Every structure is written in C-alpha cells, then in structure tokens.
Amino acid sequence: MSIQMIGIDHNLAGIDVRMIFSFTKKCMAEALEQLKQVRGIEGCVMLSTCNRMELWVSTNETCSVSLYELLCEIRQVPAEMYRAYFSFREGREAVRHLFRLAGGLESRILGEDQIVTQVGEALTFAREQYATDHVMETLFRMAVTAAKKVKTDVVLSPADNSVVRTAIETLKGQGKTFAGKRCMVIGNGVMGKLSATMLRAEGADVTVTVRQYRSGIVEIPRGCKRIDYGLRMSLFGQCDYVVSATVSPNYTLTRELVEQELDRPVVLIDLAVPRDIDPTVRELPQVELYDIDCFREEARSEQQKAAIAKAETCLLEQMEEFFDWYEGRDVIPRIQGIKEAAARDLEARLSKKLQHLSVEENVRENLKQEIFGAAQRAVNKLLFGLRDEVSRQTFLECLDGLESVYGEAEEQDPGNR
User: Fold this and answer.
1) β pairing state of 266-270 and 287-291
2) Tens-digit pLDDT profile for residues 12-30
3) The pLDDT of residue 158
4) At 339, which helix (H) or strand (E)?
5) Is there a contact between 22 and 13 (Cβ–Cβ < 8 Å)?
6) The whole model's pTM is what?
7) Which of 13, 54, 119, 291 could bridge to 7 as Cys pair (CB 3.0-4.6 Å)?
8) What is the C-alpha R_g of the chain?
C-alpha cells in the first residue's frame, strides 16, 4: 500500500496553466469515477481551488500507472506539455505536504482561513462519490484535525487573512480608495460573499449579483444590494470596481460586453480560476484588470517564521499519530483475533463459576458480556502498549507467539488445564 499525490499550484504555474487543470464539481465527479476504475487505486481525493489542483490516491502493489498521465488523459491535453508544472510526492513526504497544506503553510496567503474547509470538503465530496478508502478517510480527517489545532494554538497571520483582504490592501497601497465608491460583486458564493462583506466594511456601495432562479431565496451580505445576474451590464457602466468570483466555466465579463458599456474608468478584479473576466479587456482604455496572481503576500517577517516553526511542531505530533496508525494497520486484524481469543478463553474459565452464582439469568448474561468486553480492552491496551515500546520485528514475533498459544488453547478444554 502506498500514498501518493500529484499537484499543480501557484508556486510553479500561472493562472493560464492552472485553469487547464481546474475542476468544477461535475468534472471532479467524472474524474473520480474514472480514477476508481484504475487497477491498483484503492481510494482517491481531489482538491481544486483557485490556487491549486491536487490529486491524492492510496494504491496497492498492483498499481503502476502515472498519475500525471491519468490527469492529462482526463483533461484531454498532451502529456508532454505540462509535466514541468507538476509536483509529485509519495509516502511520508506526501503526508507531510497534506498536513502543511491543511494548516495553511502552503498557501499563497500564510494561514489563509479557507484552506482547511476546502480540504475537509474535498474529503466529503470524494466520500459522496464512493471514491475514498480507509486510508484516505483517516489521512484527511487527521490532517483537518491537526490544521484546526494549529489555528487554535498558533497565530500565523492577522485576522481577516484572505486573498480578498490582500487584494484590498494591495489596491489601497497603490492609492486607491473604496469609501463611497460603487462596487459590483459578480457571484454570491463563499469568495463573492467575502468580497462583498469586506468592500462594504471599507465603506463602498456594494451590489451583489444573484441568479434569477435563486433571487427569491438567496441571502446576500448585510448592507449590500442585489441585482439579477442577467442585468449586470446595466449596472456595469456606473461602477468604480467590479469583482468577479464565480465557478462558472465561461466568462462573466467578455471583451465585447465590457466595450459596449465602458464610458468611465473601472477597476476589474478577477478572483476566479478558471478566469471570469476575458484577459483581453486590459487592452481597453480606462480599464485596470487584476487577476488572483496579482495579489501575493510580501516576504514573511521573523515573527511569522517563528509561528511557522511552532505550527510545524504541532503538525508533526499529529503526523506521527497518523504514521503509527498507518504502519500498524496491517496487524490490527491479528490484534483483534488475539483479543477475541483471549476473551473467550477467560469467559470459558469463568463460566462454571458464574453458573453457581445465585442471580437471575439475565444478570448472569450481562456479567458474562461485561467480563468479555473488559478482557478485550485489557488485551488491547497491553498489545498496543507493547507495540509502542519494542521494535516492529519484536512485536511481530510476540504476535506470532500469542497466536500460537491461543490457537492451541482453542483446541483444548480450558477446564482440563
């Protein structure tokens, strides 16, 4: 059994390359279904955000496929073109990367708030597609648990740490202001709502687009107005800023649409991958276009470096717990067998004594069950404690001996010994 991951992210690939390997939920479901059919892949989870796409798999010894070639086949692109943009990790390196990723240490914005939720949602989605196995389930659950502990115990960055906050601060650093300015946010998902909320907090007059079929029930951030998505261009010419943050596979703003309504300076901010705004609009006069790659965190301070070291120590503790489980999972069935055999042996030895107790039958049966459970728990504690104190080889030899003893014991009548 092996754990592998392959990914493409903002460190190696610009937005134009990342968008080729970006997956909508529908496409992700189709990809996971294909991956499930690959011989040797036991479980898989896919994560696709604006900054990265990563595929995680657990494999058995029969798996000999290239994850990179599988991805290229799924996306129907030539394999020779994009290999340099991908990173591949296996075993402990792969596990360490996931824990760091969930903890916000691999993000464009250090400690960003969204990534741990995205990792958890990736596991949930894969589970809904019946694509996970016990290894993927345990790995991702423990990574999310570790990440939440980091967020509780370590201050990596200031509050409101997100690409939206970084975008606003970057533009303010260029002398732009938001108070009293008219802004339209296209998209009312997580990123859209966050953008609208932060722009409103800056004093902007914010209008959020909603789809017509949802306009009667969808909630928008407090203090914002709404407009039907189909009417967005009627407001466009009055805006100082337009932010687009949807999961649409098509442009929300094409060059033709912008050109028709453009009669004043406007700042366009595209926070989507794939792109929401046609990049050629930046050629138009009076247009400033920013995409998500324009907003990068500055060099990290000494305080942040110290916080990263503390976070890594916290993550390491959780990683070692996962490795203990992962490396010992093959002996768990053997431990279970020994526990049950030992409990049956004890139960058989006590059965005659229990029969002589002057109690009702149901009380006697409850007592037998409690003894059986207590024996199992005691043996379980003994064996796992032993596993942590001796070498793996010694522990396996102990299991061999116990299996031999209880195998012989089951063939004999305990009352005769």
Assistant:
1) parallel
2) 899 999 999 999 999 999 9
3) 58
4) helix 332-355
5) no
6) 0.70
7) 54
8) 29
Residue that is written with structure tokens 């946010």 in the block? 185
CA distance 56 to 143: 13
Per the CB < 8 A criterion, the answer to whether 221 and 280 are in contact is no
Rounded average pLDDT over 26-44: 95
Set out the domains of the chain in order of their start, with CATH numbers: 2-159 (3.30.460.30), 163-294 (3.40.50.720), 330-416 (no CATH)
Query: First vs last Cα of the chain: how many Å apart?
Result: 43
pLDDT tens for residues 90-119?
999 999 999 999 998 888 777 777 899 999
Q: Which of 78, 79, 94 is nearest to 7 (CA)?
A: 94
Rounded Cα distance between 74 and 71, Å, is: 5
**Average pLDDT of every residue of the chain:** 88
Mind listing the pLDDT tens digit for each residue in 123-168? 999 999 999 999 999 999 999 999 999 888 887 765 556 788 889 9
Instruction: Return the closest-CA partner of residue 266 out of 286, 247, 292.
Output: 286
Q: What is the DSSP letter of 329?
A: G
Catalytic residues: 50
Task: Identify the three-state secondary structure at position 54.
Answer: strand
> Which among 225, 247, 168, 251 has a CA at the least distance from the CA of 202?
168
Helix (H, G, I), strand (E, B) or coil at 398: helix
Whether pLDDT at 416 is above 50: no
Q: Could you give the CA distance from residue 47 to residue 122 in angstroms, rounded to a whole number? A: 5
Q: Is 7 helix (H, G, I), strand (E, B) or coil?
A: strand
Query: Percent helix, strand, coil in the chain (nearest 5)?
Result: 55, 15, 30
Question: What CA–CA distance (Å, rounded) separates 175 from 244?
Answer: 22
Tokens linked to 28? 């992700």
Long-range CB contacts (< 8 A, 24+ apart) of 282-291?
284/255, 284/258, 284/259, 286/262, 287/258, 287/262, 290/167, 290/171, 291/15
* 224-240: pLDDT as tens digits: 999 999 999 999 999 99
Q: Are 251 and 281 in contact (CB under 8 A)?
A: no
Residue 99 · residue 315 · CB < 8 Å: yes
Sheet holding 87-90, edge to edge: 41-48, 52-59, 2-9, 87-90
Length of the chain: 417
